[in-house]
Amino acid sequence: MPQKYVRVDGVATFVHHVGPTTLPERPPALARGETVVCLHGASENSAVFVDLLARLEAAHSPLAFDRPGHARSGGLDGLPSLARMAEFTRAFCAAIGIERCVLLGASMGGGVALETALAAPELVRGLVLVASRARFAARPALLEGLRLISEGKARREFDRTAYSPAATPDVMRRGFMEDLKTDPRVLYGNMRALDGWSREADLARVVCPTLVVAGEDDAEDVRAQADVLASRIPRARKVVIPKCGHRVALEQPEALANEAGAILAGLTRCASHERSRAPAPSSTRPAGRRTRRNSRSWPRARAARSTTADSSSKTSTACSPRACRWARWASSRCRNT
Q: Contact 256/316 with Cβ under 8 angstroms?
């Protein structure tokens, strides 16, 4: 899968993308379907989305980046707050020329996606919130354990509870190896940034269509938060992926791609439908100037335009149930009539 670095706010930011490779100062090709920016969790990096990106590549333009301090991006420290992470996300989009996109956030990345949607609704076309929350309170024992690890006073243990009992050893090994690429001090800083963070009171202000994805075997409090997100965001829909824990993109990338892909296809089709209903541009012929029509060709041309108009009206007054799947979930402007 193509990889590159992009300089964002002075930080060398590592990016996974699809499509052809590009020169160092050229952005990835993003013309196909929807542009999807994937945001990783507190201990993760963009590599956890590689399988998802490959499955979305045929119809869309997905990409993922490492936040500062994570894996191969620059910086010794992480960003101090989710609001600052959202600012960095907007700066990343600006750096590669993204004007509108769908944000897919996993775990803490979902919180960053929420912050971005609230701060810059003109940028965010849709949200996919995966194993995410609208509120987080870190357990004191968790924070203390991470502090000791960050100071080299305790071992970094593998957290088996983040995975479904159905997860294979290969999947868990891969997740652990990716987590090791992020400095424990960055993870500790991320958890401190999350502690006490809440956007529950602001969920009604999220204006874009939203898909909430929960793992069937995720922790009970995370699944409860998925219900909060789905019930309070006005244009939200929730799906549950079976045999899946907290690390959805690693455990069930195909199921996640199917759910996200259906949403993205609906967005694309509804956008195409809206463009087809846009009024035709007015004539630029100078006012007062009359042109003489050929008396023989005019009736035929008029009949041809009439036939075209009738055909156009039949295809544009209603979109198919499959094409407007997103619209039915989200009460968007693309409606069946």
A: no
Q: What is the mean predicted confidence (pLDDT) over 252-260?
A: 97
In degrees and rounded to multiples of 5, residue 88 shows phi and psi of: -65, -40
**278 inside domain:** no
Q: Residue 224 is part of which domain span?
A: 3-270
Nearest to 185 by CA among 67, 81, 77, 40: 77
Q: Is 97 exposed, middle or buried (0-12, 13-18, 19+ CB in 10 A)?
A: exposed
Mean pLDDT value of segment 258-280: 76
Please provide the size of the chain in residues.
337
Looking at the DSSP assignment, which residues form a beta bridge with residue 213? 130, 239
> Could you report the per-residue pLDDT of 26-51, keeping only the tens digit for each?
889 999 999 999 999 999 999 999 99
CA distance 297 to 286: 23
Q: What is the DSSP letter of 153?
A: S
pTM: 0.83
Count of the separate structural domains present in the chain: 1
